[in-house]
Amino acid sequence: MTNDVQAAAPTLPDPDIPYYNGIPQVITGKQWWLVMAAIVAGFAVVSFWGLGGAWGHWVPVIALPLIPLLALRYVAPEHWTAIFRRVSLRDVLLMLGIWILNVVVTVVVGWVLVKLVGAKDNPGADALADATTTEKVLFMVQAVPQLFGEELLTILPLLALMYYFHSRLQWSRRTAMLTAWLVTALIFGAVHRPTYDWNVVQAVVGIGVVRLILTLGFLITNNIWVSTGAHILNDWTIFGFALN
To answer: What is its EC number (predicted)?
Structure first.
Protein backbone atom coordinates (compact mmCIF):
# COMPACT_ATOMS: atom_id res chain seq x y z
CA MET A 1 0.00 0.00 0.00
CA THR A 2 2.81 2.39 0.91
CA ASN A 3 4.62 1.68 -2.33
CA ASP A 4 1.42 2.35 -4.29
CA VAL A 5 0.97 5.71 -2.58
CA GLN A 6 4.60 6.67 -3.23
CA ALA A 7 4.32 5.64 -6.86
CA ALA A 8 1.16 7.72 -7.30
CA ALA A 9 2.64 10.83 -5.68
CA PRO A 10 3.97 13.38 -8.18
CA THR A 11 7.68 14.11 -8.27
CA LEU A 12 8.17 17.72 -7.31
CA PRO A 13 10.74 19.61 -9.38
CA ASP A 14 13.48 21.68 -7.84
CA PRO A 15 12.40 25.25 -7.10
CA ASP A 16 12.30 27.24 -10.32
CA ILE A 17 13.91 30.58 -10.98
CA PRO A 18 11.82 33.07 -8.97
CA TYR A 19 9.51 35.91 -9.93
CA TYR A 20 9.32 35.54 -13.73
CA ASN A 21 6.10 33.48 -13.60
CA GLY A 22 4.54 34.78 -10.39
CA ILE A 23 6.23 32.19 -8.15
CA PRO A 24 6.76 32.75 -5.25
CA GLN A 25 5.01 36.05 -5.96
CA VAL A 26 4.25 38.46 -8.78
CA ILE A 27 6.57 41.45 -9.15
CA THR A 28 4.79 43.85 -11.47
CA GLY A 29 6.37 45.87 -14.24
CA LYS A 30 6.32 49.08 -12.19
CA GLN A 31 7.94 47.26 -9.29
CA TRP A 32 10.67 45.93 -11.56
CA TRP A 33 11.33 49.48 -12.75
CA LEU A 34 11.85 50.48 -9.12
CA VAL A 35 14.37 47.67 -8.68
CA MET A 36 16.15 48.71 -11.91
CA ALA A 37 16.31 52.32 -10.67
CA ALA A 38 17.90 51.06 -7.45
CA ILE A 39 20.52 49.18 -9.47
CA VAL A 40 21.32 52.35 -11.41
CA ALA A 41 21.55 54.28 -8.14
CA GLY A 42 23.97 51.76 -6.64
CA PHE A 43 26.09 51.78 -9.79
CA ALA A 44 26.08 55.60 -9.77
CA VAL A 45 27.52 55.62 -6.24
CA VAL A 46 30.36 53.37 -7.42
CA SER A 47 30.98 55.53 -10.48
CA PHE A 48 30.89 58.98 -8.88
CA TRP A 49 31.80 58.51 -5.20
CA GLY A 50 34.83 60.70 -4.63
CA LEU A 51 35.68 60.29 -0.95
CA GLY A 52 38.53 58.00 0.02
CA GLY A 53 40.19 57.38 3.32
CA ALA A 54 40.10 54.36 5.58
CA TRP A 55 36.30 54.10 5.52
CA GLY A 56 35.34 56.12 2.47
CA HIS A 57 36.25 53.30 0.07
CA TRP A 58 33.68 51.05 1.74
CA VAL A 59 30.70 53.26 0.87
CA PRO A 60 30.46 52.46 -2.86
CA VAL A 61 31.21 48.74 -2.49
CA ILE A 62 28.47 48.42 0.14
CA ALA A 63 26.01 50.66 -1.73
CA LEU A 64 26.25 48.61 -4.92
CA PRO A 65 24.54 45.52 -3.42
CA LEU A 66 22.65 47.20 -0.58
CA ILE A 67 20.49 49.62 -2.58
CA PRO A 68 19.12 46.98 -5.00
CA LEU A 69 18.53 44.55 -2.13
CA LEU A 70 16.53 47.15 -0.23
CA ALA A 71 14.42 47.75 -3.34
CA LEU A 72 13.86 44.02 -3.82
CA ARG A 73 12.86 43.68 -0.18
CA TYR A 74 10.41 46.56 -0.63
CA VAL A 75 8.64 45.01 -3.64
CA ALA A 76 8.85 41.42 -2.31
CA PRO A 77 8.85 41.75 1.49
CA GLU A 78 8.07 38.09 2.15
CA HIS A 79 10.02 36.53 -0.72
CA TRP A 80 13.00 38.79 -1.39
CA THR A 81 15.35 35.98 -0.31
CA ALA A 82 14.13 33.65 -3.08
CA ILE A 83 17.37 34.20 -5.02
CA PHE A 84 19.36 32.93 -2.02
CA ARG A 85 19.51 29.23 -1.26
CA ARG A 86 21.51 27.04 1.05
CA VAL A 87 24.85 26.16 -0.52
CA SER A 88 25.20 22.42 -0.99
CA LEU A 89 28.27 20.36 -1.89
CA ARG A 90 26.96 20.23 -5.46
CA ASP A 91 26.81 24.02 -5.47
CA VAL A 92 30.41 24.27 -4.27
CA LEU A 93 31.62 21.87 -6.94
CA LEU A 94 29.70 23.78 -9.62
CA MET A 95 31.16 27.02 -8.29
CA LEU A 96 34.67 25.61 -8.64
CA GLY A 97 33.94 24.21 -12.09
CA ILE A 98 32.61 27.55 -13.37
CA TRP A 99 35.64 29.32 -11.91
CA ILE A 100 38.07 26.97 -13.70
CA LEU A 101 36.12 27.20 -16.95
CA ASN A 102 36.09 30.97 -16.67
CA VAL A 103 39.84 31.15 -16.16
CA VAL A 104 40.40 29.05 -19.29
CA VAL A 105 37.91 31.06 -21.35
CA THR A 106 39.38 34.36 -20.09
CA VAL A 107 42.86 33.33 -21.22
CA VAL A 108 41.65 32.14 -24.63
CA VAL A 109 39.35 35.09 -25.33
CA GLY A 110 41.97 37.55 -24.03
CA TRP A 111 44.60 36.09 -26.37
CA VAL A 112 42.23 36.33 -29.34
CA LEU A 113 41.31 39.94 -28.53
CA VAL A 114 44.96 40.96 -28.18
CA LYS A 115 45.70 39.49 -31.61
CA LEU A 116 42.65 41.00 -33.32
CA VAL A 117 41.88 44.37 -31.73
CA GLY A 118 44.26 44.85 -28.83
CA ALA A 119 43.26 44.76 -25.16
CA LYS A 120 43.69 46.96 -22.12
CA ASP A 121 44.81 45.67 -18.73
CA ASN A 122 42.46 45.94 -15.78
CA PRO A 123 43.53 49.12 -13.94
CA GLY A 124 42.70 47.51 -10.62
CA ALA A 125 45.32 44.85 -11.24
CA ASP A 126 47.86 47.49 -12.27
CA ALA A 127 47.23 49.51 -9.11
CA LEU A 128 47.86 46.46 -6.93
CA ALA A 129 51.39 46.10 -8.24
CA ASP A 130 52.58 49.15 -6.26
CA ALA A 131 50.22 48.81 -3.29
CA THR A 132 51.27 48.05 0.26
CA THR A 133 50.42 44.70 1.83
CA THR A 134 47.59 46.26 3.84
CA GLU A 135 46.18 47.93 0.73
CA LYS A 136 46.31 44.63 -1.16
CA VAL A 137 44.44 42.80 1.59
CA LEU A 138 41.79 45.51 1.84
CA PHE A 139 41.37 45.50 -1.94
CA MET A 140 40.72 41.77 -2.01
CA VAL A 141 38.30 42.00 0.93
CA GLN A 142 36.41 44.94 -0.57
CA ALA A 143 36.07 43.00 -3.81
CA VAL A 144 33.66 40.57 -2.09
CA PRO A 145 30.69 42.93 -1.58
CA GLN A 146 31.40 44.71 -4.86
CA LEU A 147 31.34 41.47 -6.86
CA PHE A 148 28.16 40.43 -5.05
CA GLY A 149 26.72 43.76 -6.18
CA GLU A 150 27.78 43.00 -9.74
CA GLU A 151 25.88 39.72 -9.51
CA LEU A 152 22.75 41.60 -8.47
CA LEU A 153 23.38 44.00 -11.35
CA THR A 154 23.07 41.00 -13.68
CA ILE A 155 20.65 38.59 -11.99
CA LEU A 156 17.89 41.06 -11.08
CA PRO A 157 17.65 42.48 -14.64
CA LEU A 158 17.67 38.89 -15.93
CA LEU A 159 14.66 38.08 -13.76
CA ALA A 160 12.92 41.28 -14.83
CA LEU A 161 13.48 40.46 -18.51
CA MET A 162 12.27 36.90 -18.00
CA TYR A 163 9.09 38.29 -16.42
CA TYR A 164 8.55 40.61 -19.38
CA PHE A 165 9.32 38.02 -22.06
CA HIS A 166 7.45 35.13 -20.43
CA SER A 167 4.52 36.73 -18.60
CA ARG A 168 3.90 39.75 -20.81
CA LEU A 169 5.00 38.61 -24.27
CA GLN A 170 4.03 34.97 -23.63
CA TRP A 171 7.36 33.60 -24.84
CA SER A 172 8.35 30.10 -23.78
CA ARG A 173 10.45 29.73 -20.65
CA ARG A 174 13.45 28.55 -22.69
CA THR A 175 13.29 31.46 -25.16
CA ALA A 176 12.76 34.00 -22.38
CA MET A 177 15.70 32.62 -20.41
CA LEU A 178 18.11 32.46 -23.36
CA THR A 179 17.25 35.98 -24.47
CA ALA A 180 17.56 37.43 -20.97
CA TRP A 181 20.84 35.54 -20.50
CA LEU A 182 22.32 37.09 -23.65
CA VAL A 183 20.96 40.60 -23.09
CA THR A 184 22.23 40.85 -19.51
CA ALA A 185 25.68 39.62 -20.58
CA LEU A 186 25.81 42.41 -23.17
CA ILE A 187 24.71 44.97 -20.56
CA PHE A 188 27.31 43.70 -18.09
CA GLY A 189 30.02 43.99 -20.73
CA ALA A 190 28.86 47.47 -21.74
CA VAL A 191 29.05 48.90 -18.22
CA HIS A 192 32.69 47.76 -18.07
CA ARG A 193 33.72 49.96 -21.00
CA PRO A 194 35.26 52.68 -18.76
CA THR A 195 37.28 50.02 -16.95
CA TYR A 196 38.99 49.04 -20.19
CA ASP A 197 39.53 52.54 -21.60
CA TRP A 198 36.28 52.40 -23.61
CA ASN A 199 37.48 49.43 -25.64
CA VAL A 200 34.00 48.36 -26.77
CA VAL A 201 35.03 45.02 -28.26
CA GLN A 202 37.01 43.99 -25.19
CA ALA A 203 34.22 45.00 -22.83
CA VAL A 204 31.23 43.66 -24.73
CA VAL A 205 32.83 40.51 -26.17
CA GLY A 206 35.51 39.66 -23.62
CA ILE A 207 33.62 40.54 -20.45
CA GLY A 208 30.28 39.51 -21.99
CA VAL A 209 31.49 35.96 -22.64
CA VAL A 210 32.80 35.67 -19.08
CA ARG A 211 29.44 36.95 -17.83
CA LEU A 212 27.57 34.26 -19.77
CA ILE A 213 29.56 31.58 -17.95
CA LEU A 214 29.11 33.16 -14.52
CA THR A 215 25.35 33.49 -14.99
CA LEU A 216 25.13 29.77 -15.68
CA GLY A 217 25.82 29.25 -11.98
CA PHE A 218 22.55 30.94 -11.13
CA LEU A 219 20.52 29.47 -13.98
CA ILE A 220 21.54 25.92 -13.03
CA THR A 221 21.07 26.24 -9.26
CA ASN A 222 18.69 29.24 -8.86
CA ASN A 223 21.17 30.35 -6.21
CA ILE A 224 22.99 33.68 -6.50
CA TRP A 225 25.64 32.47 -4.05
CA VAL A 226 26.96 30.08 -6.70
CA SER A 227 27.51 32.73 -9.37
CA THR A 228 28.86 35.12 -6.73
CA GLY A 229 31.36 32.56 -5.44
CA ALA A 230 32.59 31.77 -8.94
CA HIS A 231 32.85 35.51 -9.67
CA ILE A 232 34.92 36.14 -6.55
CA LEU A 233 37.27 33.25 -7.30
CA ASN A 234 37.62 34.43 -10.89
CA ASP A 235 38.55 38.01 -9.99
CA TRP A 236 40.76 37.00 -7.09
CA THR A 237 42.70 34.85 -9.55
CA ILE A 238 43.11 37.76 -11.96
CA PHE A 239 44.14 40.19 -9.23
CA GLY A 240 46.29 37.53 -7.57
CA PHE A 241 48.74 37.61 -10.45
CA ALA A 242 49.27 41.32 -9.74
CA LEU A 243 50.28 40.55 -6.16
CA ASN A 244 53.44 38.75 -7.26
So the answer is: 3.4.-.-
Spatial neighbors of 17 by CB under 8 A, at least 6 apart, are: 159, 162, 177, 218, 219, 222
Q: Which residues are within 8 A (CB) of 74 and not within 5 positions of it... i.e. 6 or more apart?
A: 34
**DSSP reduced 3-state for 121:** coil
SS (H, E, C) 56-104: HCHHHHHHHHHHHHHHHHHHCCCCHHHHCCCCCHHHHHHHHHHHHHHHH
Distances (CA, A) of 232 to 36, 104, 105, 225, 226: 23, 16, 16, 10, 10
SS3 214: helix
* pTM tops 0.85: yes
Rounded CA gap, 242 and 239, in Å?
5
* Domain layout of the chain by residue ranges: 2-242
Given a contact cutoff of 8 angstroms between Cβ atoms, the answer to whether 42 and 68 are in contact is yes
